[in-house]
TrEMBL record:
Stored Pfam families: ABATE, zf-CGNR
SUPFAM superfamilies linked: Jann2411-like
UniProt cross-references to PANTHER family, sorted A to Z: BLL6575 PROTEIN (PTHR35525)
Protein name as annotated: CGNR zinc finger domain-containing protein
Zinc finger CGNR domain boundaries: 143-186
InterPro entries xrefs: ABATE, ABATE_dom_sf, Znf_CGNR
Length: 223
């Protein structure tokens, strides 16, 4: 599927938005604080993601953004395309959209969806909603995922070629779990094969490590 510059920006924004939510206090290992605690934090979010034309931000904007963040979290949690589609339809319809072609800032022609003068929540709902909608259209809704690390569950979008990414960030969650699995296998092998000459272990070690590294590199491929 084609991911234009703006789509990529919208995807980054929606992942950051969903992951700004505080952890459910009932969750094991919870403790991530509210990432959008006040208007200043929202202002920083808007600046970091270059969200244009949203005017002066207020407490109302903050509350509205918290609301749509909850809806987007449901999209990432949707088990299948129908559920994701109806959530996205609601989000985009409530935001009101005005699709218009633009080639601003030297980018190729692409479509903006937010209506002129839209609030920041409506802007996000329209453009991020449409960016996610294209995943459903392409039959790729399963790429919208939650990290499988037990103490993480952050949202991410799997853009790997073979849709095999399971963790939010292969350098932290992914790497950590690969290493844990690798060590567990090593311990098991050491227990089962006592008496094997040390040289054989080292060789197997090296091959295993290379295999893991190749796997990690594949996970990082972005199309
Ligand atoms: Zn644009
Ligand atoms: Zn993670």
């Amino acid at each position: 599927m084609l991911i234009t510059h703006d789509t990529r920006c919208a995807l980054d924004a929606v992942v950051d938005l969903v992951n700004s939510a505080p952890d459910d206090p009932d969750d094991e290992g919870g403790g991530n604080p509210e990432g959008l605690a006040d208007v200043a934090a929202l202002r920083a979010f808007v600046r970091n993601h270059s969200i244009s034309d949203v005017g002066t931000l207020t407490e109302r904007d903050l509350a509205a953004v918290h609301r749509i963040r909850g809806r987007f979290a449901e999209v990432f949690a949707a088990a299948e395309a129908h559920a994701a589609a109806s959530l996205l339809n609601e989000l985009v319809a409530a935001a009101g959209t005005t699709p218009r072609l633009t080639d601003h800032d030297g980018y190729d022609w692409h479509v903006h969806y937010f209506a002129p003068g839209a609030s920041v929540a409506d802007h996000l709902a329209a453009d991020c909603g449409m960016a996610l909608a294209f995943f459903v259209v392409a039959g790729e809704q399963e790429r919208l995922r939650r990290c499988e690390a037990p103490d993480c569950r952050r949202a991410f979008i799997d853009l790997s070629r073979n849709r095999s990414r399971r963790y939010c960030d292969s350098r932290t969650c992914g790497n950590r779990l690969h290493v844990a699995a690798y060590r567990a296998r090593r311990r098991e092998a050491a227990g089962l094969e006592q008496g094997t000459p040390q040289g054989g272990d080292l060789e197997r070690d090296k091959l295993e490590r290379e295999r893991l590294e190749r796997g990690l590199q594949q996970e990082q491929v972005v199309q």
